[in-house]
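Technical annex, item 7. During the second reporting period the consortium partners agreed on a shared format for inverse folding records so that results from different sites could be compared directly. Each record opens with the tokenized structure and is followed by the designed sequence. A conforming record, contributed by the partner at site C, is shown below for reference.
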């Protein structure tokens, strides 16, 4: 079997990282893959390291109509059994059109839970033979918008439980980020975009610091709200307690050193950072939004709070910070959850099963 994968993301996190896991797992099972990505994309570099055939094709968004011709030509040369579209930014709709023109069974991965107009759903999702959602919550959004149940299936995202593990690294946070003082460290790992809820965490921070003055908050990630979040930190006089750490490629070393991971997102398909935290044995406080309840077992591996409820957010953080034995118990539960529900092997098997169903049909 040969599968052509299309991933438009340039940075290696979120969906692009899942594509790498899938390519590696399919390769181990004897499936031939070809990756289509923009020139210079990190996902292409990692795929080449795995020995995957990579084709760099410019993709400039939803209106890049020449992309249709470029991808049709590639499919006619490669003659794949399956076309798998992994991202938006033009790859989904334009790629679906290409699949129809080339007569190749087409799979779309959907990683976000934001609703789309029903008229658009009625037209767009006819292009795909299968839609694979990364959470049951996203699948339910599609069903409510009119996608047929047999077309949409849930295959959870995966986390590398070998790379992300509860291995403590002495002084890692101090050496990498300059944190000192011995106080608890609360991390948030997310793109700096509105729906991730950074403002909610900053609003809750004073209540946490009132109970735990030595606590530190570390915001990992980059995005368009960087300057706005910096201004909010200064406006609340939190400069001594909140650190913006940017994007880190040493996260597997730093994450196990955190006491809590917080994720107050307003919308979330599933949350890869939550899976990484679970694999590292770090309890989570997160919003009860989108697919997050599938990644966090409330009162078992962490706490879920209503989106935007800063008082509940602060209370949950303070509860965990005040009880080391509770954090330790939740840490073990979180690691077990990651191993059982979000392994790379399960994710690869789920995708491959859908390829085989389409090929047989």
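Designed sequence (site C submission):
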């Amino acid at each position: 079997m040969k599968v052509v994968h299309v991933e438009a993301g340039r940075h290696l996190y979120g969906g692009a990282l899942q594509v790498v896991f899938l390519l590696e797992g399919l390769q181990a099972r004897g499936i031939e893959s070809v990756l289509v990505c923009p020139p210079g994309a990190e996902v292409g570099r990692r795929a080449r390291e795995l020995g995957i055939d990579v084709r760099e094709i410019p993709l400039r968004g939803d209106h890049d109509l020449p992309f249709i011709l470029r991808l049709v030509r590639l499919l006619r040369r490669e003659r794949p059994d399956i076309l798998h579209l992994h991202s938006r930014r033009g790859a989904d709709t334009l790629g679906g059109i290409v699949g129809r023109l080339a007569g190749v069974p087409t799979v779309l991965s959907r990683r976000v839970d934001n609703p789309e107009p029903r008229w658009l759903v009625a037209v767009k999702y006819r292009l795909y033979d299968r839609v694979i959602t990364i959470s049951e919550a996203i699948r339910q959004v599609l069903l409510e918008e009119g996608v047929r149940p047999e077309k949409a299936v849930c295959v959870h995202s995966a986390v590398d439980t070998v790379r992300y593990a509860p291995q403590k690294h002495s002084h890692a946070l101090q050496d990498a980020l300059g944190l000192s003082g011995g106080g608890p460290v609360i991390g948030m790992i997310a793109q700096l975009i509105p729906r991730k809820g950074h403002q909610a965490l900053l609003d809750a921070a004073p209540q946490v610091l009132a109970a735990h003055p030595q606590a530190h908050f570390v915001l990992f990630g980059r995005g368009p709200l960087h300057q706005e979040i910096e201004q909010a930190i200064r406006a609340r006089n939190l400069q001594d307690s909140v650190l913006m750490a940017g994007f880190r490629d040493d996260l597997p070393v730093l994450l196990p050193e955190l006491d809590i991971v917080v994720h107050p997102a307003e919308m979330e398909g599933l949350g890869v950072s939550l899976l990484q935290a679970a694999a590292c044995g770090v309890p989570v406080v997160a919003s009860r939004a989108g697919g997050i309840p599938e990644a966090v077992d409330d009162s078992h591996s962490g706490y879920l709070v209503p989106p935007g409820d800063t008082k509940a957010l602060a209370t949950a953080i303070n509860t965990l910070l005040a009880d080391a034995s509770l954090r330790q118990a939740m840490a073990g539960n979180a690691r077990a959850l990651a191993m059982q529900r979000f392994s790379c092997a399960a994710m690869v098997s789920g995708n491959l099963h859908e390829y085989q169903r389409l090929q047989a049909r």
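The chain has a mean pLDDT of 94. The chain has two domains: 2-158+343-360, 172-341. All partners now use this format for quarterly exchanges.
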